[in-house]
Amino acid sequence: MPLPLGSPIATRGAERQRPRHSGPRNHGHRSMSDIYSPFQLGRIQLQNRFAMAPMTRARANADGTPGPLAAEYYGQRASVGLTVTEGTQPSDDGQGYPLTPGIYTDAHVGGWSRVNEAIHARGGHVFYQLMHAGRMSHPDNTPHHRQGVAPSAIAPGEQIYTLSGMKDIPVPRALTTDEVAETVKDYAYSARRAIESGADGVEIHGVAYLVHQFLAKSANQRTDRYGGSIENRARFAIEVAKAIISEIGPERTGIRLSPRFTGFGLDVGREGPDLFRYLVGELDKLGLAYIHIVHYGEDDILNDFRRIWNQAIILNRPARPREDIGKDIASGLADLESYGAHILANPDFIERIVLDAPLNTADHSVFFGHQPEGPEAGYTDFPTLKESQEGVQA
């Protein structure tokens, strides 16, 4: 199954005072070794500049509580400076895929608290990624078995994984203007629950799903204040950020964006670069802790973001070659670099990079859901370098 953006399970096609911290304003060239150095992100100090990218694993309990091995899985990988969790729905309506976790009930809070303890015990820090799937959903996958909701009643023209197989995604129901406001409140509530569980912050998932669907002309044909102009289509993302900030503060809030992503039937139109420059500029006024960019294509828009964004930038380049690790930090283009499948398959990823040791291969067939070999298969059973060496010696 494909793993676009580290999050979907399977598809066809595929004005507050800004926090002060080191790094983002120093945009000049730095040493490659800076990726191993500490970094002040809002109110927390990260032990290094590696981030674990969000990756859906579809191993939560049926009620959305993180599964029994989640704490072990995340704890194994907590040598990275920042862990961004798998996409976590803020409401029943927000669920898109089966067995994904939520963060809006007491059970969710209890389950995630164990994950946080495991990460913090190893000196790591964690932001939950808040992911409302919007139209990328199916009634078979949601607790209330309702159709997905979206800016407009336009199907993505994709299929989605359900526990009974691949199915066409039905036409979503368009949110009313009042319902958009309620959805914004859902994000804010889930952010508060995240902090209650012990998380260090939250990341708004702004790629492919509901936030991105509001940005994209192909998914948003609204005629109210959330549709039409660049300012209107960006309004939902900005309101979500403001609502979360009102609950937990800007230093605990990040957002993930991808200006050049065009999957899932999404097209922001020819003014896409202007749209994202406007959005990033408006979000910068709010003083969010970071933007997390999934980058495809030329670096021109990244340089634009560097000029208009005054906080941290996390950069994810899908399929980044091993020899390029640390280059975006050394050039001053990014403050942190995020990695997905490599960290999934290598709990000791940083140690292996430091030692120039071989990496475990990421096997896409075990990325999602419980495996026939057992719940740990493809989840918590990837060997560390030490374990591999001991196995050879034995």
From TrEMBL:
Q: Which InterPro entries match?
A: Aldolase_TIM, OxRdtase_FMN_N, Oye-like
Domain (NADH:flavin oxidoreductase/NADH oxidase N-terminal): residue spans on this chain: 35-354
* A Pfam family reported for this protein in Swiss-Prot or TrEMBL: Oxidored_FMN
Q: Which stretches does UniProt call biased (Basic residues)?
A: 18-30
Query: Where is region (Disordered) located?
Result: 1-33, 373-394
Q: What is this protein called?
A: 2,4-dienoyl-CoA reductase-like NADH-dependent reductase (Old Yellow Enzyme family)
Q: Which organism is it from?
A: Kaistia dalseonensis
Traced from the root, the source organism's taxonomic lineage reads:
Bacteria, Pseudomonadati, Pseudomonadota, Alphaproteobacteria, Hyphomicrobiales
